[in-house]
Design goal:
This protein is mainly alpha-helical and 93 residues long. It has four helices and no strands. The chain has a domain at 13-72. It is elongated, with a radius of gyration of 27 Å.
Length: 93
């Protein structure tokens, strides 16, 4: 038996001009206005999230990052001790 998807209600006050534009766009695509608006809002939300999660670097920053990957600095003594301790712990288990 299929399970019901939980839903929530969204309300917004818009101008009559925007309402007419949305209605026309939905009709042109052969969709209900609700389907058109939900799809458009979902696409806009996805784009906003993707844009916020993408890291953008200047050319100088890209070169610095690539150089750090290609020639990493020598590990500090504390990091070497941590790796030694980790390896010791993993061998005894």
């Amino acid at each position: 038996m299929p399970t019901a998807t939980a839903t929530a209600r969204l309300e917004a006050r818009i101008s009559t001009d925007l309402h007419a534009m949305l209605k026309r766009a939905a009709e042109l695509q052969g969709r209900t206005m609700t389907d058109f608006v939900v799809s458009a809002v979902q696409d806009a939300a996805q784009r906003a999230i993707e844009q916020a999660e993408v890291i953008r670097l200047s050319l100088a920053d890209q070169e610095c990052f690539a150089q750090a990957l290609l020639s990493p600095p020598k590990p500090a003594p504390a990091l070497e001790r941590a790796f030694t301790r980790r390896n010791t712990l993993l061998r005894t288990e």
